[in-house]
Design goal:
Elements: E1 3-7, H1 12-23, E2 28-32, H2 45-49, H3 70-77, E3 79-82, E4 85-91, E5 96-101, E6 107-111, E7 114-117, H4 142-154, E8 159-163, H5 167-171, H6 173-178, E9 182-186, H7 199-205
Parallel strand pairs: 1-2, 1-7, 2-3, 8-9
Antiparallel strand pairs: 4-5, 5-6
């Protein structure tokens, strides 16, 4: 029986786990996720900010409304999920991962035959003065979404600057405009959506 450990439990990790179990139902698959939520649609966060739905937990549900939590993955997928756990060390020679529980502080070692790294991306915070001041946010996970939505509702200053004209940045324009904000978008490249479009098509959108 193959033992598969997957580090990262938001998007690619759960998809990989489900695929592995379909290919080899006997495989022992474990997902390690340092956050407190597994398998959610982060790409839907701008729509949450735009009030297209009220409960952010909708981003964790299947098409039929079942929450994809630890119990769901165990019962439906046959996959063990460890949330609030961080992989702190990988011993490739011994094929072991040291995992720290971020709540209890306890550590354990998990052995594997195959290791999948599905840690995703991180928001790029430009190294500029004031980047850590109050009122500056990143949009990465569900907690970020809740924080920004609260700020939208409570802010008296109706001006916002979005740094980055990628997909998420551009999709965040509408929620702020709908809430009465004056929106400016800053992008270091000369056109928007630079990773999706060429300059000619991008300029047509602008």
């Amino acid at each position: 029986m193959a033992k598969i450990v997957i580090i990262g439990g938001v998007a690619c990790g759960p998809k990989a786990a489900a695929r592995i179990k379909r290919l080899d139902p006997s495989a022992e698959v474990t997902i390690i996720e340092k956050g407190d939520t597994v398998s959610y649609g982060a790409c839907g966060l701008p729509f949450y900010l735009a009030d297209e739905f009220e409960d952010i937990s909708e981003l964790t549900k299947t098409a039929v409304g079942v929450v994809r939590d630890v119990n769901f993955f165990k019962a439906v997928k046959g996959v063990d999920v460890k949330i609030n756990c961080e992989a702190v060390e990988i011993d490739r020679k011994a094929k072991k991962v040291k995992v720290k529980n971020l709540v209890s502080g306890e550590e354990e070692e998990i052995s594997y035959d195959k290791l999948v790294l599905a840690t995703g991306s991180s928001p790029v915070k430009p190294p500029i003065p004031g980047i850590d001041l109050k009122g500056i946010y990143v949009l990465k996970d569900l907690h970020d979404g809740e924080t920004i939505k609260k700020a939208i509702k409570e802010s008296k200053d109706k001006r916002v600057v979005i740094v980055g004209a990628g997909m998420i940045g551009m999709e965040c324009i509408e929620p702020f405009l709908n809430a009465g904000f004056e929106v400016s978008v800053v992008e270091k490249l000369p056109f928007v959506l630079p990773t999706f479009l060429d300059e000619e098509i991008s300029l047509l959108i602008m």
